[in-house]
Amino acid sequence: MQFPTNSRRGILALAAAGLLAPLGALAQGDKPLRVILPLSAGSGADGAIRAISTQLAKAAGHPVVIENLPGAGGITGTAQIVRGPRDGSMIGVVSNNHVVNPSVYPSIPFDAIQDIAPITIIGATPFVVVANPAVPARNIQELVALAKAKPGTLNYGSSGNGTILHLGAAMLVDQARLDIKHIPYKGMGMLMNDLLSGQVQWGVVALAPAAPHIKSGTLRALGVTTAQRVPSMPDLPTVAEQGLPNYALEGWIAAIGPKDLPMAERNRLHQAFQQALAQPEARNALIAQGYEIKLTPPEATTAFMRSELQRMAEVVKNVRVKVD
Fold this sequence. Notes:
Blueprint lengths: L7 H10 L15 E5 L6 H17 L3 E5 L6 H8 L7 E6 L1 H8 L11 E16 L8 H10 L5 E4 L5 H13 L4 E4 L3 H10 L4 E5 H10 L3 E5 L25 E9 L4 H15 L2 H9 L3 E2 L4 H22 L5
Parallel strand pairs: 1-2, 1-3, 5-6, 5-7
Antiparallel strand pairs: 3-9, 4-7, 4-8, 4-9, 4-10
Helix pairs in contact: 2-9, 2-10, 4-11, 6-11
């Protein structure tokens, strides 16, 4: 599904005209704005939110306190968001995993759509297939050929069983019909460490944290996961270009609140993100993290997440991923 369009020029015009005023009444009293990240420190979403937190605090009129609550593919932290206060003083920032989990876990303690109040899709980012330089493959075709020549001997890592990074690699394995072992980690940081050390041979990771390692040669980029090549690495072919035409995947992060968060609060929170990302400091920081800014309004965010829930259910079915 395509993201709903958002007028960046419109946001900038509002900011210039002073119509995006500080949102001092965003939350009740003097409470800080708690931002729950059901993801580990060092993840792409973690870096993105920390990069814009100063400007978000100014826009909200309250300090921003970021809390990482990883576990169970994001379920642990999201359960806290679902039970949070309905006064706009606490929100969560979730990734694709939020709409993947209902298909890979036998049960979760909330409904991924009914028990949340979507606020905005903040941005989207490419993933990249990377390998440790010791792996004798310089592109996707060579990785596929190597795996077929030595079935059962290669391995790939992910940020956790059933996570979007697991699905990204599993999609490649499924579409190329490969026999490769999966090694799940507890978060992106641990995965990156073992990719760099060679404990795992390849994996699908967020582009921004991988980019410095690709540039230095400590990781080798084999292909980008999006439907189109990315401007920051125009010479890196997509996975689809390299013999898997049905392959396409990108990451996204979304701000959500608990169920029954009033629409007025959702709109004010959406406006806070608009105001924050109208500032060059925050906008450039998010772009530097590898994100394309989206800022969809609440109603469009709900529609997008419903669509992604259905799409990811089909992907999970195809790659046969389940978590006990």
